[in-house]
Design brief:
The chain is mostly helical and about 325 residues long. It has 2 domains: about 170 residues, no CATH class; about 55 residues, no CATH class. The chain has 14 helices and 3 strands. The chain has a 3-stranded antiparallel beta sheet with strand order 1-3-2. Keywords: Signalosome. InterPro entries: COPS7/eIF3m, PCI_dom. Belongs to the CSN7/EIF3M family. CSN7 subfamily. Pfam families: CSN7_HB_subdom, PCI.
């Protein structure tokens, strides 16, 4: 419980004790009790005093007219405002302490309901004519821990910036139905939000489970495929069948050899071609292909040097 509210409850206890222990039940005694309770500087809540049977007895038609207004006055101090007091006829007059107390309580209600609070609006609501008087009232409320506020007289318009209000006003019984309705609507909205959150959580969990199942199926398929690539069949699968016309150096085709000439080896030519061929086979081959192979500068096919070169080339690839 707020400390300010606790102090206000403690300040009211002597008056409650006096109302319960005193055998006098006359309307005059109850009226004096209400006047003293509302004039006390530290009393700001009065609901417990209102619930006492002796106080409620003032509502009886047998109560003298001069005391009937004290119960209404106590109700205004509990949850009403200065404007309620001004608008209600046949109420007892207020002394100076009661006037200050009711204005302070009205300031609490206005601060909780209206923002921003301008000087002019507060002066009209509290029947104050001078800005200095309003500033004195607000300062008293601040030092009494009723509100946390800052005065801004230089702004246009001048305002009172309230940041917090002490929970010192009693709840009007007629407003309980409205409060219950508001709280019920708030509870319903909270339930709808919780339901939406739970549905979203369930959706996320379902999608996550589907995703994990899909990943598991893909991993199982991958492992099954990988297991089929055993040691026995891996070479054949990777290499594949050799094509007789493959460029790796196999014999075949109309030319007698297929592949890159730079990958030749001496074994590929060990077929007696150079030994059993005609004397002019090399010349015929060269003349037919129009290629000069390994001829140095100044060499000639017809001269002795050229004949020697041809002779050397005839033994190319020959194994000894």
């Amino acid at each position: 419980m707020d400390q300010t509210h606790t102090r206000a409850m403690e300040a009211l206890q002597p008056f409650i004790h006096l109302a319960n222990s005193n055998s006098a039940t006359s309307p005059k005694f109850v009226a004096n009790l209400i006047t003293n309770a509302t004039s006390s500087p530290n009393t700001y809540v009065f609901a417990e005093l209102l619930e006492i049977q002796m106080v409620q007895a003032l509502r009886s038609t047998d109560t003298p007219a001069e005391y009937q207004g004290y119960l209404t006055l106590l109700e205004i101090f509990s949850w009403g405002t200065w404007q309620d007091y001004q608008a209600t006829p046949n109420l007892p007059p207020l002394n100076e302490k009661q006037t200050l107390k009711l204005r302070l309580l009205s300031l609490l209600s206005l601060s909780a309901a209206i923002k921003p609070l301008t000087y002019q609006m507060l002066m009209d609501a509290l029947s104050i004519t001078a800005p200095s008087e309003l500033e004195s009232l607000v300062t008293t409320a601040i030092y009494s821990s009723l509100i946390t506020a800052r005065l801004s007289p230089a702004t246009s318009p001048p305002t009172v910036n309230v940041t917090s209000v002490a929970p010192l006003r009693d709840v009007k019984p007629q407003s309980l139905t409205t409060m219950i309705s508001i709280l019920t609507q708030w509870e319903t909205r909270c339930g709808d939000v919780i339901s939406d959150i739970e549905a979203e959580i369930a959706k996320i969990r379902t999608n996550s489970a589907k995703r994990r199942a899909k990943e598991h199926a893909q991993m199982a398929l991958f492992e099954k495929t990988l297991s089929n690539w055993g040691p026995e069949g891996s070479e054949s699968r990777l290499a594949g069948p050799k094509n007789p016309g493959w460029h790796g150096g196999m014999r075949g085709g109309a030319g007698g050899f297929v592949g890159n000439k730079r990958e030749f080896s001496s074994d590929d030519f060990d077929d007696g071609y150079w030994d059993n061929g005609t004397e002019n086979a090399y010349d015929t081959l060269v003349a037919g292909s129009r290629m000069d192979i390994d001829e140095g500068a100044g060499s000639s096919r017809m001269g002795p040097a050229g004949a020697g070169a041809r002779h050397a080339k005839r033994f190319l690839g020959k194994k000894y």
